[in-house]
Amino acid sequence: MEEKILEERLRKHLEQVRPLDKEAMEQTAKRWDTIAKPLKSLGILERNVTKLAGISGNSRPRIEKRALIAMCADNGVIEEGVTQTGNEVTAIVAQNMAEGSTTVTVMAQAAGTDVFPVDIGMAAEGPLMEELPQEDTPVSPRTLLARKIRKGTRNLAKEPAMTRKEALMGILTGLELAGQLKRQGYDILATGEMGIGNTTTSSAVAAALLSQPAERMTGKGAGLSDQGLLHKIQVIEDALKLHKPDQEDPIDVLCKVGGYDIAGLMGVFLGGAVYRIPVMLDGFISSVSALLAAALLPEAKDFMIASHVSKEPAGGLVLEALGLSPMLCCEMCLGEGTGAMAALPVLDMAMTVYHTMATFDDMQVEQYQPL
Question: Which residue in the list 3, 64, 336, 366 is annotated as catalytic?
Fold first, then answer.
C-alpha cells in the first residue's frame, strides 16, 4: 500500500474519536460517594473505575473479557552492542508466549486474560505482510499472529529505523487489531511486548519527545553493566544528533529511532480511543508507545489506564508526562505485559467493591460529606 493511502486510512480512523461520556462518569462518581466507606478512600482505583464508565458509556462498566496484545519485534541497533543477548531470544520468547510458557502467560492465566502475541517485525523467518489484513479478520489467542512488516528495523545508529510507510503499517496494525478484539467481545486490552534492544529504542523516543538528555531516559534494560549503560547512552545521543527527529511529528520520531513493536503498541493505544475500549499500559516500552499515541492524538490519554511504574529510570517521567497514575509500584522491569497482568486483579477488586458493596443508605448510616 502507498504511504498516502495509509495516511488517509489512519486519518479516517482518528476522525471517529469522541470524548468520554461525562454523564456516565458523573453517575459513577456519585455511586462511589454513596458506598459505605470514607470518601475517595480508594483513590486511583475509584478514578479508574470512573474512567471505565466514561469509556463504555455505562455507569456499571465491566471488564470480564480481557486480552493482552504483545507486540514482538527486533531492532537493528543491537549491532552496536547495546544488549546482552541476540535477537534469537525474541523469537524464542514469542513462540513460548504462543505456547503459554512465559512469565506473562502464567500471570495472564491467573488474571483471566487471553494472550495475543504478534510478530510485527521479528528477525526470525516468516512471511512479510504485503498489505494490512481485512479489519474483520478474526484472531485467536495463543497463536503467533503473522503481521511482519520487516525482519527487524534498520540500525538507528546509522540510518532511520524505518520508513514512514512502515511506521504507518505498524500503527494501523495495532489500531485495527484493537478494533477486531473489540468486535470479538473484549472489554479491556492490556499491552505488552518482546524485542531485544527495545529499551534502547524506547529511551531514544522518550528523549526526543520530552526534550530530555539520553542519560536521564536510559537504564540498563535486561542487565547491562555500568560500562554497557554508558555505551548505550552514547549510541542514543549520537542517533538523536544524526537524525534530528521532529518533536512536533510523533511519526517522524517513531521512524527515526523507534521500533515496530512500539509502532504496533502506539496503534493499540490509538485504537482504544477509536473503538472506545480501555487500554492498560504495562512498563517502559508500553508507556513510551502511549506517549507517542498521545502526541499524535491527545484524546487517546482518556482511554489509557496505568498499571505500574517501571523500574527503568524514565518510567515515572513518562507516566507523569501522560498525566497517568500507576496502581502498583513493584520495581518490575520484565516487560511482556507482566505489570498489566499484576494490576488487573487490583482493578477487579475495585470493580467488585463498586458493584457489590452496601451504601450508607443500605446500612442506615449517615453519609460522609465533603468538607
Answer: 336
